Amino acid sequence: MAPSHLPNDRSFKSDSVESSPLSSSMRPVTEASDLKPLNNPEAALKDAQQKLAQDWENKCDGINIIRRLCVHNPEVLTPHLHSVILAILAEVKNLRSQVSRLAITCLGDMFTYLRRSMDADLDNTTKVLLHKNAESNGFIRDDVEKALVSMIECVTPQRALLALISGGASHKSIAVRKTTSYFLVGIVERMGPGRILSGIKDVTDRVIPTAAQFVLDSSPETRYNGRKILSMLMSHQDFDKMLAKHLPQNTLRNIKDVVDTVRLKGLGDAPSESPSAKNRRSGQGSRSRSGSAGSSVTDLAQSTPSSSSSKKRPVKVDEQTQEEIKEMNNMLSAGDWKERYDGIRRLLEMCETSSGKVGANIVKIFDRFVPRLQDSNSKVNLYALQVMLQITPVLRDHLGAVISLVIQTVASNLSSKNKEIYSTAMDILDTFMEHLDGAILLQPFANQAQAGNARVKPDMIEKIAYLVTRVSQRKSKQVTLHVLPLVWHLLGATTGSGAVHGGSGSMRSATSKLVNSLYQQMGQALLDQASANLSPRNLQVLQDIIDNP
């Protein structure tokens, strides 16, 4: 029964969780999208706060009211958010699993629907979730990891990065460190090497030592994720300098050995996954509203807008095929260039005869194949690029899982003096734009346009200008998130005459094409965004480019 001080007791009663012949411990958790609106949100919030201080069944009712407020009345919740979060975090620690799991689910809903409003309490929230992940209850671990997926998709990336590092990177539990490293991979990919290695306080100086720590961890999964972070950063021109700056000498020596191995042989085989990781890969239990996640990392769910693999039956891979893949991977990372060349030929044959099996194992295979796209032997390098060009249409539904690393490696070939290597790399990027969803290409293209070699940048900027015309109308948020920061960066690097520092005529021409492509799609909105992000001088440069296309 509702407390007597609430107005209209009878009408409010329908806002509480309805009674059920089942005990609360047996009731299934209602999906956020199925939660009904409240008749009196302000009164419901007070009632929820009172219920959270009562017995466990009332706690469950109170948590569900908070969830309903998140979905339908976030404006009522926001002014009281800090106290509500503290109350929910207390229930995450509840020894009764029914209450704890519901509280974890509630936090996932809060990340999804309140988004960056959750930033202020992110350190504490992330810490509690990560530490809860150390428990042996598999269902609770799954709930925690689903909540963390929502967290990194919806809050400010830099805040999420720091919260993950502070909350779990050095935790004594192997499970917590492994989970932290897994989600940190996603955040690093989302932010891109340009931002991570920009020298910003509490970003570069935190990520580099943390990645090094992961690489040297006792857990193979954590070590793999550490290598993956380094592999995403190593294309940046300042990578080696930042390693030397932020790592002590004894650690630096070990990490350089690891980096050299990754450059030569790739990441190596990914350790076998836990069931909870597999659930994340299949996207089960995602709380994100349709379309809200965009092209989020990655790779956290390993599903992308261009991938329809989640709608298809998974391909069963027998022991013989696994043995063939293992043998092929060994060839791809062999010391003899001729054997690596034969390994690439073997991959092409497998794509032609069993593309589904390649797609089902694409991460494992491409960990070994991608380094061949910039092999030290020019024959192997060129042949790998030619094969990549051939297999892209065949693997189009599976490439989303590895696209960022592939683009990073292919784009590096645009600085090659070998005309055949250069032209093949250009053809691959054009094939990506033809066969893949442009929305998943924007971020990795923008990363290379900002952080790549000076000879790479003009070509990448021109390709982004083309992508903008294809995706702007249906994915305007992606353009705002990934392309506009690139434009601000390019304009910020201009001199008083409009030339780009360290750039060339082709760089100026490419920047002009990108600006005018954006202006055609966004109109006055581009100038409105620019006025809030650019200095008066750079704003004038932007206006001059628009006035003189």
Descriptive notes:
The chain is globular and about 70 Å long. The longest helix has 24 residues, at about 335-360. By secondary structure, the protein is mostly helical. Helix 7 packs antiparallel against helix 8, helix 10 (about 175-195) crosses helix 22 (about 440-450) and helix 16 (about 320-330) packs parallel to helix 18. It has 27 helices and no strands. Mean pLDDT is about 80; it is low at about 1-25, about 275-315 and about 495-505.
Entry keywords:
single chain, 549 residues, mainly alpha, 66% helix, globular, disordered N terminus
Topology summary:
Blueprint: H1 9-12, H2 41-51, H3 56-72, H4 74-77, H5 81-92, H6 97-114, H7 122-132, H8 138-154, H9 157-168, H10 174-196, H11 204-215, H12 220-233, H13 239-246, H14 249-265, H15 275-282, H16 319-332, H17 337-360, H18 362-369, H19 378-391, H20 403-412, H21 419-435, H22 438-451, H23 457-471, H24 476-492, H25 505-522, H26 524-533, H27 536-547
Q: What fraction, in percent, of the residue positions are helical?
A: 55-70%
| Strand composition percent | under 5%
Radius of gyration: 25 Å
Oligomer: single chain
DSSP strand count? 0
Q: For the report, how would you describe the main beta sheet? A: none
Uncertain segments are 1-27, 274-315, 496-503
Our count of helices gives: 27
